[in-house]
Amino acid sequence: MLPITRACAYIGLARSTYYERPATKCRADAPIADALNQVVAKNGRWGFRLCFDYLRNQGHVWNHKRVWRIYKQLGLNLPRRTKKRLPKMPKCPLIAPNQPNTIWALDFMYDTLQYGRPFRTLNVIDESNREALAIEIDISLPSARVIRVLEQLEEICGLPQAIRLDNGSEYRSVTFTEWAKSKQIELMFIQPGKPQQNAFIERFNRTYRHEVLNAYRKRLRNTY
């Protein structure tokens, strides 16, 4: 059995190379991970194939299977969130009705309590006289809660012929749309990204924001 010195000399291998420990997989993959992160940070819409071709054009000769394995480990292959597609809505002219209970307007507002917890408010107004019919406040206001508020208003002043609202998930839910259909209420959805088509309640929201929400410290009070 030859000594290590003579064996390394016989095959032309440096002793430092013989004693050097093999690099771990994380250390070996670090250059590829850094290169991928730089490419994705600069070109966020690129997929794996564009990233791999770019690295090849830069002179890197890493195997595509190895690059794909690291690409997945970094979570870059996960689907990116895209904007939810909404159906095209016709433009609804903003004309104030002359009689009450003709068209109501609904909208949500967001704010935070003193210690940072968010809450929501559901505002309901009558477009004929801009009367605030209801302001429901809670941590969560799902579609069932919206229906409950409208049913409470039904006992007080009846229901309108139509409701103007945006394309929020609570309004688009099957529960709410079926309820409106059963009550023979027309849902007048505004066009996406066009809050001016619901200008009456947007103007009310501004007043409510400045004169109420921004004017008082908001604490969560326990009721028993």
Order of helices and strands: HHHHHEEEHEHHEH
Q: What structural class should be given to the helix and strand makeup?
A: alpha/beta
CATH architecture of the largest domain: 2-Layer Sandwich
Number of domains: 2
Mean pLDDT: 86
Strand content: 15-25%
Q: Treating each run of at least 4 consecutive H or I residues as one helix, how many helices?
A: 9
Terminal CA distance reads 88 Å
What would you say about this model in short?
This protein is of the alpha/beta class and 224 residues long. It folds into two domains: 25-79; 103-213, 2-Layer Sandwich (Nucleotidyltransferase, domain 5).
Characteristic key phrases:
224 residues, single chain, 9 helices, 16% strand, Nucleotidyltransferase, domain 5, 5 strands, elongated, five-stranded mixed beta sheet
Write the layout of secondary structure elements.
Blueprint: H1 4-11, H2 15-19, H3 25-42, H4 48-57, H5 64-73, E1 103-112, E2 118-126, E3 131-138, H6 143-157, E4 162-165, H7 169-172, H8 174-182, E5 186-189, H9 199-213
Parallel strand pairs: 1-4, 4-5
Antiparallel strand pairs: 1-2, 2-3
